[in-house]
Amino acid sequence: MDRREFATVTALGLGAAMTATTETQAQATTIEQIRARTLGGAITDVAGIKVGHFSDARRPTGCTVVMTEEGVTGGVDVRGAAPGTRETDLLNPTNLVDKVHAVMLAGGSAFGLDAASGAMRWLEEKGFGWPAGPTKVPIVPSAILFDLAMGDHKVRPDAEAGYKACEAASNNAPAEGSVGAGTGASVGKLYGMARAMKGGIGTASVKVGKITVGAIVAVNAVGDVIDPKTGEVLAGARTPDGRQRLGITQAILKGELPPSLQAGMATTIGVVATDAQLTKAQAQKLAQHAHDGLARTIDPIHTMWDGDTIFALATGKSGLPGNMMALGALAAQVMAAAVVRAVLAAKAIPGPGVPAVPGVSEL
């Protein structure tokens, strides 16, 4: 029974005949249907890309590293109004350095930027970095999300966490959901954490001809996550009783204005990558295109309370120049799919002081 049929049955007064077990089975079927029609794959399908997670066992937080230790072309685009970033100015096409060796995505708000130092240490030990006089300096751009409301705020990713994420990095498909940078992520926070749902990290890829494009994203938005196929809310703000999805934009249109929030208490961060050969300017444009994927799946997006940031990496391993028209379209598609996969895989993580934010399959 699909959702429309269920609504019809309920309107006829027959909804009471359905047991809780049947409702759960119907919901599970719907989730599987959404997952089946969403792009699969992983950013590690792009040659030259590795991913490693670190999830902190003390509270829901962690970090995720996207490794490109040999150095690849990088770009970035920041759309949110409250970003927490490191080494983003370096990626401006007018600036000198044209290679990055890793990108770090972390929880912990601005404290989590320290995780990038751990990646630098790991890369330095292995001899990777930008030649600089007597040494090599690893270039590790980074962005963070706010998860300090999930348990003990004094526990956050540090340099050791970043180092451990690098040790775990491989070209295998990375885990999705409540892991790495997505461990403490939540969505739909516009009406407070008590009415939010669980966010997480997701990944997807697509290959067209000889070119592959992949994405990974930690979804921690103020807004709702939307199914781009139907416009339905998958995860987001719940009604005051916590039992149903509210629909933030529709609620605002009805005059249900949100309370005042502190800037920076959300943020969605991610990476889009391709094996095409790109310049720094093209990489920056690819990151811009990937934001279209966020706009298709998160509503509202790029708010005053989000620091939405997307990095772009071009490994050039295909040996082919990139067609920016095609790559832009693909970047938006894989980023949108990664957002959906993130919330479908996310599960609540209980613990001391951790708000009860259910995952899609748990509501």
From TrEMBL:
InterPro entries noted in UniProt: ArgJ-like_dom_sf, Peptidase_S58_DmpA
A Pfam family of this chain: Peptidase_S58
SUPFAM superfamilies: DmpA/ArgJ-like
CDD domains from the UniProt entry: nylC_like
Family per similarity comment: Belongs to the peptidase S58 family.
Listed GO MF terms: aminopeptidase activity
The protein's name: P1 family peptidase
